[in-house]
Amino acid sequence: MKIPLYLQRRLFWLNLPSTILIALLQRTPVLRVLAVADEMVIVSPLGTMLRSAFVGATSLGVMHTLAGATELATSQTSPASATVGTPVTFAFSITGTLSPPESWTANGSVPPGLSFSGSNTDTLILSGTPTTAGSYVVTVQAHNDAPALSTSIYSYTISVTAGASTAPAITTQPASQSVSVGANVTFTAVASGSPAPTYQWRQNGSNIAGATNASLSLNNVQSGDAGSYTVVVTNNAGSDTSHVATLTVAVAPAVPVFTTQPVGQTAALGTSVTFTAVASSSPAPTYQWQKSGAAITGATGASHTVNNVQPADAGLYTVIATTPTGTTTSAPAILAPVTTQKVVGAANELGANIRHPNGRFYDQLLLTGNAATFTADAGQVTRISYLDLNDDIVQVEFSGAGSVTLVLDTPSGPAAPVSYNQAVNYMKGHGSVYLADTDSSSYISAFTVGRMTAFDPTGGYDISKAVSATNLPANNGNPLFQPATAYDGVADLGLLAITSASNTFGGALTANTSYWQDRGYTGIYAPGVLFADGRVYLHDLTAFGTATPEIQVGSASNVRVTGGNLRQDNNRAVQVSGFTSIFFAAGTDSHGKLLPAQPNQARLEENGVDVTAQRVTGGTP
Fold first, then answer.
1. Which domains, ranges and CATH numbers included, belong to the chain?
2. Does an H or E element contain 182, and which?
3. What is the four-CA torsion angle of 145, 151, 152, 157, rounded to 10 degrees?
4. Rounded CA gap, 40 and 20, in Å?
5. 524 near 552, Cβ under 8 Å?
6. How many Å is the maximal CA-CA distance in the chain?
7. Which tens digit of pLDDT belongs to each residue from 167-220?
8. What element of type H or E holds 25?
9. Euclidean distance between CA atoms 611 and 605, whole angstroms
10. What is the C-alpha separation between 608 and 618, in angstroms, rounded?
């Protein structure tokens, strides 16, 4: 069929961006093929020599529009030219009496290094950097779904020439790596050269079968994979060999070693927290999470999540990693709940804004279950009461910023106190205290109700009016106490654990407190926390069974043991940090009985080093 005269015209190509040229061509109802080649130079209608991005066009062949009503000629000579190593772009577009095509079909022999894109757009693009010389024929066909029409299949020839060859040169060298057994490793190199070079990786000078890409990946490496790795890049102009990359494969220990320790966390009540730990060993270890030394049922993964955090979830969390040849326990991580309310959990407020003889005001709480979280009003003290396992009424007092959680181990009750004449029902158990979000205004104390610490203005005893007072005389006639009862006079706690976003705390005044536990950790655990007024007081500390004794702080200038000797029933060393001396001083129990200073009977360790001689002062020889 003869080409209409109005379509017989010569097209001239200017040095314009391809998007503009395509837009200009779309005004002509023809199938257009645009070829981009950086080195083409043509003459413009103005006679100016321009560096062009497109090849000159002539009419060749016949093509139908999608409407099929008009015969149109292509505007591009075939074959087009390209050069190995030089980027090129070919754009195919068609217009007619109907809408542009909605899809394209592309087939044929695509030059290596090029690929099609835009198959669902008005313009089909074939672009890339040719890698292999030769003559290639591609076919394209445009489709319009409404109405369902297609053009004829158009064949387009691309002649790729080799161009000037350049020897390869490695521009990015592979890097040495050190990993553990079982890790995945990737070496990567980048090389220039024309034509594009091939790659061959080597280990210790020998070719690695199939390793012919720019990257070499080794999965689940073992000790036999260790060695020297190089890559040789080659084309017809020469070759280049990379620097040596050394792979070091560390054999995992038989006994687990923790590479990631669990991290202490605070959590608003009702939220969730996750602890994560990683231990390295060969074979890989199994895991068992513990809370305060007790195994958590079903917690056998590298991570453990506590959902819907409640006061009873407070504790020190650890994980034990086990292999057939041994076990290793992670460092402990504190979970301390936080609240903005006066008290949440199993406790009631018996009295508010009670005036102490010293002029201070306090709120009185009574524990009614195994755990509660509470706060203190600004400028006031909050006190909570329960019975320890020696049947002493224990008072835990707190002031300042933060939240306090009291958790009882082996709880029972509520029941009347057997050692006191009082019509109040108490919970009984072995308590531990966890503090969160504290600062330098925060103070904690713990003591028992004794003849020195009980205040009875009416001759009876009202828990809501009980106060701590070291200057009150012994009152043997106080009806609260039973004349025939031998009172212990020292509060028992398992653990005092403190975490602080500001890494500060006021002071821990627990000189009337003996810390003990038969599993997990016992003592005072506040790593990284600076005690602003320097005071960390305790009566004594004893670990039984498998428990680990701790006096760990970030910094404290006045650490005292008042009337105790730190003798450890299980002969374990007391783990210490954050102080240069610990002073063994005299003290008193809550009934006014003198507790003379005693000599130290513990071994103190810091990071595995015996520091007893450097830390201990005071005491009786």
1. 5-161 (2.60.40.10), 166-250 (2.60.40.10), 257-335 (2.60.40.10), 339-565+589-595 (no CATH)
2. none
3. -110
4. 18
5. yes
6. 130
7. 999 999 999 999 888 889 999 999 998 888 999 999 999 999 999 999 999 999
8. helix 18-25
9. 6
10. 24
Nearest Cα residue to 72 out of 156, 151, 7, 148: 7
Residue 538: partners with Cβ closer than 8 Å, 6 or more residues away: 508, 510, 511, 513, 514, 515, 523, 524, 551, 560, 561, 562, 564
Q: Between the CA of residue 250 and those of 136, 177, 261, 302, 312, what are the distances in Å?
A: 51, 11, 20, 21, 42
Whole-number Å distance between alpha carbons of 248 and 254? 19
**Is the C-alpha dihedral spanning 340, 341, 343, 344 positive or negative?**
negative
Per DSSP, the residues of 224-247 read: GG-EEEEEEEEETTEEEEPPPEEE
Give how far Cα 313 sits from Cα of 65, 273, 316, 541, Å: 75, 11, 9, 24
Beta strands in 243-400 (DSSP E): 245-250, 257-260, 265-268, 273-276, 278-280, 286-291, 294-295, 303-306, 315-323, 326-329, 333-338, 343-355, 361-374, 381-387, 393-399
Which tokens is 190 given? 């980048």
Dist CA 377 CA 396 (whole Å): 15
For residue 74, give both structure tokens.
């292509």
Cα distances (Å, whole numbers) of residue 583 to 514, 538, 614, 617: 16, 11, 12, 5
The phi and psi torsions of 123 (rounded to 5 degrees) equal: -125, 130
Say how many C-beta atoms besides its own lie within 10 A of residue 473's C-beta: 8
* Residues near 223 by beta carbon (within 8 Å), at least 6 away in sequence: 181, 249, 251
**pLDDT digit string, tens, across residues 274-296:** 999 999 887 889 999 999 999 99
Parallel, antiparallel or unpaired: strands 587-588 and 594-595: antiparallel
Interatomic CA distance for residues 491 and 514, integer angstroms: 6
Q: What are the tokens at 544?
A: 């039984």
Structure tokens at 522: 């016992």
262-277 confidence digits (pLDDT tens): 999 999 999 999 999 9
Asked whether the beta carbons of 465 and 362 are under 8 A apart, the reply is no
Cα–Cα distance, 250 to 267 (Å, whole number): 38
How many Å apart are CA 559 and CA 430, to the nearest integer? 24
Check if the beta carbon of residue 455 is closer than 8 Å to that of residue 395. no
What angle (nearest 5°) sits at the alpha carbon of residue 82, between those of residues 76 and 88?
85
Euclidean distance between the first and the last CA atom of the chain, given in angstroms as a whole number: 121
CB 187 within 8 A of CB 211: no
User: Is the separation of the CB atoms in 197 and 168 below 8 Å?
Assistant: yes
Q: How many Cβ atoms sit within 10 Å of the Cβ of residue 127?
A: 17
Bridge partner list, 496: 433, 524
Share of the chain above pLDDT 90, in %: 65
- Cβ atoms of 348 and 372 within 8 Å: the answer is no
What is the distance between the alpha carbons of residues 320 and 534, in angstroms, rounded to a whole number? Answer: 34
Relative to beta strand 114-117, strand 123-128 is antiparallel
Q: Which pTM was predicted?
A: 0.63
The 3 state secondary structure assigned to 533-569 is: CCEEEEEEEEECCCCEEEEEEEECCEEEEECCCCCCC
